[in-house]
Amino acid sequence: MTIGFSQIVLILIIGVLLFGNFSNILKEIAQGIKVFQETLKK
Questions:
Q1: How many domains does the chain contain in total?
Q2: What is the span of the domain harbouring residue 22?
Q3: Contacts of residue 25, Cβ cutoff 8 Å, sequence gap at least 6
Q4: Which pTM was predicted?
Q5: Phi/psi of residue 3, each to 5°?
Q6: How far is the C-alpha of 15 from the C-alpha of 27, rounded, in Å?
Q7: What is d(CA 34, CA 41) in angstroms, rounded to the nearest whole number?
């Protein structure tokens, strides 16, 4: 069984509905990645 694009979108929508503050989670992940990249450059 392969996972199609529509199934991935459906899972993301369910995740947004369950967690509600999905945008805040994305912002925190983005900040974490930025900090990680900055530490790699040093």
A1: 1
A2: 5-41
A3: 19
A4: 0.42
A5: -95, 120
A6: 16
A7: 11
